[in-house]
């Protein structure tokens, strides 16, 4: 997990009992005083002991003390948000197209699509096209009052997407004064350097009936390249690979071991040349023999001439700059009429680089004038007849190449978001409160692909001959416009429209690929391009509700409180890829435009019934409930509900529980995405080395499939693919909603005999049925043969070649096929120790202690009806971003003495397996015991601040104090940033 600039920080303690009892209130409380607030998870005003839904509240002070410039890094330290996506998981080789710089929250490992992000209880427009996923970079940190994390089904209160819970950012109101803050930080190991600058000001007017305030925040988070960490450079980079000393799969020898100095065996940066067409490189452009000193199946060598794996890591963190400008205010005409409004503008740009283009078996004719003489002398005439290729091919060589010198591919993503809120609220009829609001949000996203390539131009440019008139090298197509590039082993389809017109005026310049850095810059300029995809997301939300006591009914324990309301929402998303991508002319995937929207009309109600109060063994007993009826333009009608119980036998102890049914309607991407080409690497589950790594059905199913294709010995099948495989990704207009049943039960203790102590423990169980699941290509291949029968949707989505059995293509699309279930226990402990109240004469300040923890008891997936259950508990799947340690804890202690505050944070989660439990069960010798597990995460943070009476605060800190390093996995279980120092200054003039 991340630990840069305040990541790996615990939750600082707020008011005692806040954040432990499902409380959202952050306020002072005198002995015996009961304060009513709006608690996240309900629109009913209630005091802090009346909330049946478990909630953790994080204060603004905790966020500031962390020194973070990236809010998600801080939130990821909470057990429930451990698998959230931040800069580290969405950069370079770790990310996906369009994800650079995105920060998305993921509750309970159930996905960002099932986590609802709110601002002051209202929805926020998304920044990931075709989804409802909110980029947390759009939330201004210095305006946050607190963050409430509700980990239970609350769809009945807030609508769809709140399957795993809600993260609600509660913003400061009635800001008065002027506050500025600047901060700078840097990593001990070099790069990244982070900058934060904020300015917030506000004033009251009209005798305090009105307030207007504004804020601007600028963050600049620096880039981190893999080569800036010595343990990730060249031969130092270590990764788990197949054990070359275990060719016969001896059960007493581990199948995988950590190996360093790993290279691709069949391609090189300067070009790996195959002169006899047997699929194995023979020479380098210099004429030197191509070295494969130790082959490591399936595609690697330890040492040798091939491209080092370390070169392909790319950036670890992007360069990310974000500016957030906010204006907010209200004017109170009367108790019954208070107008309010908000406006926010966000501009962000993130840039990162990942991997270059690469090519296998490029045919280069013997008449290419760039062909080195030393290589030409090795050409075997008629080598293509050896069986690798076309026997009619002219003489030449095959070149496999990692094209770093053409430019490393990357993306520059610019995101512009604006959001407006307008409304009116007030108190009417003495005891009732209403609110009517309208929210509009819009995100415009430009995703610029850097160092992309025109495939047709590239193949034309490397098909080089000598111009008989000038004696100079030229493109063959310049002399003969009908001569399409001869590349018999490439998947590029030359029958479609070309990006150029062949002939003497095409602009084609000959491109030399024999050696690194030898290409003509003019040729590169003609071949390479930067092309942009544009997207726009829009959100319109109208909401109105009325809250107050049910008229005419007063129980002995008090009023029955209720809320009734209506909501209308429309979400839209449109994406326009560049023409070259749509026509399939570039190295990237074929991408088609997406245009979709939906709307939903809803009515909702909540109720809280005080059954008993102030009786022996019944200090308080109340029942609550909520229901929401929705009508979607896509999936039709749905109903969600929840009910809760709170029982406090005495003031010191209360018990709570909820049962909820939530829904999630499919998003725009899942419904409306057109068919687009994609490429994914697949480790064939039918490869002999993988047969024992699946369910009990795998071996028999693989034998049946391969035998039907004419493979003679299926049990000894070796996957012939060594590169990514082309496939198709598409939406599914036939999807229906998914439904989740959630249970939470817990207890809260606030003993009077231990003043300042508060603790809670809660059990949760979330079970999702008919879940919408989009399996990636690897999952499609695995699930096809891991089911009881090969008659399933996954086998229908996979194509294999007759004779060889190789996977040739696949289809990935969302289906209502999966079931997810997670279960565990959360616990929170807060203790405020004031020695002065214990009778100590000396004033030594106050101490606060906080422990937030979780034990994960279950995390399972059933990929389709009738399939075996897949247990993901205690595993870390870095491809899917699922991190599921059994234990996760965050401990903080803070000492405050006059103007001085010192904080220490300790962050821990238990060790996790680098392999699935299914693989380990079927293959106990997968790795040695010391290599089966990733180490536990243990990081330490330290910070201090001092407040001067003149309104100045200076602060400094260090995160990952002991400079912990990640495992072989590069980004896990800690960040490669390492030890990170930061310091800042905050100046306040009457502000808060």
UniProtKB/TrEMBL annotation:
<keyword id="KW-0798">TonB box</keyword>
<keyword id="KW-0998">Cell outer membrane</keyword>
<keyword id="KW-0472">Membrane</keyword>
<keyword id="KW-1134">Transmembrane beta strand</keyword>
<feature type="domain" description="TonB-dependent receptor-like beta-barrel">
    <location>
        <begin position="403"/>
        <end position="961"/>
    </location>
</feature>
<keyword id="KW-0812">Transmembrane</keyword>
<dbReference type="Pfam" id="PF00593">
    <property type="entry name" value="TonB_dep_Rec_b-barrel"/>
</dbReference>
<dbReference type="InterPro" id="IPR000531">
    <property type="entry name" value="Beta-barrel_TonB"/>
</dbReference>
<dbReference type="InterPro" id="IPR036942">
    <property type="entry name" value="Beta-barrel_TonB_sf"/>
</dbReference>
<comment type="similarity">
    <text>Belongs to the TonB-dependent receptor family.</text>
</comment>
<dbReference type="InterPro" id="IPR012910">
    <property type="entry name" value="Plug_dom"/>
</dbReference>
<dbReference type="Pfam" id="PF07715">
    <property type="entry name" value="Plug"/>
</dbReference>
<dbReference type="InterPro" id="IPR039426">
    <property type="entry name" value="TonB-dep_rcpt-like"/>
</dbReference>
<feature type="signal peptide">
    <location>
        <begin position="1"/>
        <end position="28"/>
    </location>
</feature>
<dbReference type="InterPro" id="IPR037066">
    <property type="entry name" value="Plug_dom_sf"/>
</dbReference>
<feature type="domain" description="TonB-dependent receptor plug">
    <location>
        <begin position="49"/>
        <end position="166"/>
    </location>
</feature>
<keyword id="KW-0675">Receptor</keyword>
<protein>
    <submittedName>
        <fullName>TonB-dependent receptor plug domain-containing protein</fullName>
    </submittedName>
</protein>
<feature type="region of interest" description="Disordered">
    <location>
        <begin position="236"/>
        <end position="256"/>
    </location>
</feature>
<keyword id="KW-0732">Signal</keyword>
<keyword id="KW-0813">Transport</keyword>
């Amino acid at each position: 997990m991340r630990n840069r600039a305040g990541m790996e920080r615990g939750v600082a303690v707020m008011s005692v009992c806040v954040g432990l009892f499902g409380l959202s209130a952050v306020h002072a409380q005198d002995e015996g005083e009961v304060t009513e607030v709006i608690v996240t998870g309900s629109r009913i005003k209630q005091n802090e002991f009346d909330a049946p839904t478990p909630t953790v509240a994080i204060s603004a002070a905790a966020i500031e003390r962390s020194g973070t410039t990236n809010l998600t890094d801080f939130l990821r330290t909470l057990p429930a948000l451990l698998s959230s996506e931040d800069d580290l998981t969405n950069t370079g080789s770790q990310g996906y197209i369009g994800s650079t710089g995105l920060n998305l929250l993921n509750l309970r490992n159930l996905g960002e699509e099932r986590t609802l992000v709110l601002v002051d209880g209202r929805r926020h427009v998304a920044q990931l096209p075709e989804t409802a996923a909110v980029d947390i970079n759009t939330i201004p940190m210095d305006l946050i009052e607190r963050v409430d994390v509700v980990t239970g089904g609350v769809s009945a209160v807030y609508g769809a997407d709140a399957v795993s819970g809600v993260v609600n950012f509660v913003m400061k109101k009635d800001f008065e004064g002027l506050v500025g803050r600047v901060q700078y930080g840097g990593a001990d190991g070099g790069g990244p350097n982070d900058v934060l600058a904020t300015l917030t000001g506000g004033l009251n007017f009209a005798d305090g009936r009105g307030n207007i305030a504004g804020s601007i925040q600028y963050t600049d988070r620096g880039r981190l390249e893999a080569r800036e960490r010595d343990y990730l450079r060249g031969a130092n980079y270590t990764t788990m690979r197949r054990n070359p000393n275990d060719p016969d799969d001896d059960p007493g020898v581990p199948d995988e071991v950590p190996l360093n100095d790993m290279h691709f065996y069949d391609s090189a940066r300067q070009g790996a040349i195959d002169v006899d067409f047997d699929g194995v490189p023979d020479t380098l452009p210099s004429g030197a023999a191509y070295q494969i000193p130790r082959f490591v199946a399936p595609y690697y060598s330890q040492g040798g001439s091939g491209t080092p794996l370390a070169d392909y890591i790319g950036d670890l963190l992007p360069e990310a700059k974000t500016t957030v400008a906010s204006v907010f205010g209200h004017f109170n005409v009367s108790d019954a009429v208070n107008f309010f409004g908000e406006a926010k503008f966000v501009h962000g740009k993130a840039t990162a680089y990942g991997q270059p283009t690469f090519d296998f078996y490029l045919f280069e004719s013997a008449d290419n004038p760039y062909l080195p003489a030393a290589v030409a002398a090795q050409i075997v005439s008629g080598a293509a007849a050896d069986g690798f290729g076309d026997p009619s091919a002219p003489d030449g060589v095959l070149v496999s190449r990692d094209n770093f010198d053409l430019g490393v591919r990357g993306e520059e993503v610019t995101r512009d978001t604006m959001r407006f809120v307008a409304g009116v609220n007030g108190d009417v009829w003495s005891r009732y409160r209403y609110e009517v609001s309208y929210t509009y949000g819009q995100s415009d996203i430009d995703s610029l692909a850097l160092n992309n390539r025109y495939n047709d131009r590239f193949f034309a440019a490397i098909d080089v001959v000598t111009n008989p008139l000038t004696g100079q090298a030229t493109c063959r197509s310049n002399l003969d416009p009908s001569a399409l590039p001869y590349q018999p082993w490439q998947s590029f389809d030359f029958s479609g429209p070309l990006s150029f017109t062949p002939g003497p005026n095409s602009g084609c310049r000959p491109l030399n690929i024999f050696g690194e850095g030898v290409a003509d810059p003019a040729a590169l300029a003609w071949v390479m391009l930067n092309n942009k995809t544009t997207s726009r997301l829009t959100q319109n939300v109208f909401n109105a509700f009325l809250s107050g006591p049910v008229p005419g009914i007063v129980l002995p324990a008090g009023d029955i409180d209720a809320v009734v309301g209506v909501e209308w929402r429309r979400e839209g998303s449109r994406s326009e890829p560049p023409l070259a991508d749509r026509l399939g002319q570039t190295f990237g995937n074929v991408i088609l435009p997406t245009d979709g929207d939906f709307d939903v009309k809803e009515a909702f109600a909540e109720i809280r019934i005080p059954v008993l109060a102030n009786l022996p063994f019944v200090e308080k007993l109340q029942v609550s409930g909520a229901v929401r009826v929705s009508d979607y333009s896509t999936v039709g009608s749905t109903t969600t509900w929840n009910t809760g119980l709170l029982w406090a036998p005495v003031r010191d102890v209360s018990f709570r529980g909820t049962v909820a049914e939530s829904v999630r309607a499919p998003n725009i991407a899942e419904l409306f995405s057109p068919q687009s080409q994609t490429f994914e690497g697949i480790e064939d589950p039918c490869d002999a080395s993988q047969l024992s790594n699946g369910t009990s059905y795998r071996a028999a199913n693989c034998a049946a499939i391969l035998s039907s294709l004419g493979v003679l010995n299926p049990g000894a099948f070796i996957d012939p693919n060594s590169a990514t495989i082309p496939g198709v990704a598409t939406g599914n207009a036939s999807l229906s909603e998914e439904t989740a049943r959630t249970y939470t039960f817990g207890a809260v203790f606030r003993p009077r005999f231990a003043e300042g102590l508060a603790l809670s423990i809660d059990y949760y169980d979330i079970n999702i049925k008919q879940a919408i699941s989009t399996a990636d290509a690897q999952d499609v291949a695995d699930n096809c043969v891991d089911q009881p029968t090969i008659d399933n949707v996954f086998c229908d989505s996979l194509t294999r070649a007759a004779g060889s059995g190789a996977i040739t293509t696949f289809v990935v699309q969302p289906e209502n096929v999966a079931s997810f279930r997670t279960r565990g226990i959360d616990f929170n402990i807060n203790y405020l120790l004031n020695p002065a109240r214990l009778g100590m004469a000396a004033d030594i300040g106050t101490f606060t202690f906080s422990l937030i923890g979780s034990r994960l008891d279950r995390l399972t997936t059933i990929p389709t009806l009738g399939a075996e259950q897949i247990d993901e508990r205690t595993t870390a799947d870095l491809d899917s971003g699922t991190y599921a340690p059994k234990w996760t804890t965050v401990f903080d202690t803070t000492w405050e003495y006059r103007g001085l505050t010192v904080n220490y944070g300790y962050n821990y989660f238990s060790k996790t397996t680098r392999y699935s439990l299914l693989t380990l069960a079927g293959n106990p010798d997968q790795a040695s015991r010391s290599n089966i597990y990733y180490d536990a995460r243990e990081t330490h943070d330290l910070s201090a601040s001092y407040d001067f009476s003149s309104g100045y605060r200076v602060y400094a800190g260090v995160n990952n104090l002991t400079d912990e390093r990640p495992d072989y996995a590069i980004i896990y279980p800690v960040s490669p940033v390492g030890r990170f120092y930061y310091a800042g200054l905050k100046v306040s003039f009457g502000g808060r």
